[in-house]
Amino acid sequence: PTPQAVPSIYEMASDISHDDSLGLLSLAVKKKHGLQPGDKIDLHTDTDLLKEIEVVNVHDEHRFSVKTHTHPKQAFVYGKYVDDFRCVDYEAISMLNVSATQELARQAEDLESRVRDLEARERRLALLEENLEAKMSRMEAFEKRLDALDKRLVSVSPQIDRNTEGLQVSVSTGSSR
């Protein structure tokens, strides 16, 4: 990967001095710069844009020097170059978001369809249960009637047995009653 400058410092230099004999430009910033000798930085000056300029000396955590022959009165220190610069591809994230949202919508529609099917089955089941209860009730009524008829039949059965014996006798004798 190509090194890129990141806005790690991103502020106007509070103090600028130039040493013509050494060709060094010394800069001071208010916040800690975190630079080391050999780092490369971007400087935007009132006279020039200095890209990938090398840090020669680090005096303290707020002051450093770079090698240049320019004499700016103002300088904006952008930041240092890094090899592992990463950025967020918002367009790709947006497309991924759209795809994920579409998939969630499809799943929601599928679930809604399944819920509708289950609700319809539940209604059919309730109707079947009502129908079964009605039939069970009718069957119980028939059983009660059958039991009552059976009891009447048992109470009348000795008479029927006697009558059937007499009938058999009369049939065997050939006379009718």
Can you offer a commentary on this structure?
The protein is an alpha+beta fold and 177 residues long. The chain is built from one helix and eight strands; from the N terminus they run ββββββββα. It has one helix at residues 90-173; strands at residues 4-5, 11-12, 15-19, 24-28, 40-45, 49-58, 63-67, 75-82. It starts with a strand and ends with a helix.
Considering the chains and any ligands shown, give keywords for the structure.
rod-shaped, alpha+beta, eight-stranded antiparallel sheet, 8 strands, 177 residues
Residue share in β-strands: 15-25%
Indicate the overall shape: rod-shaped
Radius of gyration: 52 Å
Number of helices: 1
Unreliable runs, pLDDT <50, ≥5 residues?
168-177
Mean pLDDT: 88
User: What distance separates the N and C termini?
Assistant: 125 Å
Report the structural category. Answer: alpha+beta
Q: Give the biggest beta sheet.
A: 8 strands, antiparallel
Helix content: 40-55%
Order of helices and strands: EEEEEEEEH
Number of strands: 8
Q: How do the helices and strands line up, and which of them pair or pack?
A:
Elements: E1 4-5, E2 11-12, E3 15-19, E4 24-28, E5 40-45, E6 49-58, E7 63-67, E8 75-82, H1 90-173
Antiparallel strand pairs: 1-8, 2-8, 3-4, 4-7, 5-6, 5-8, 6-7
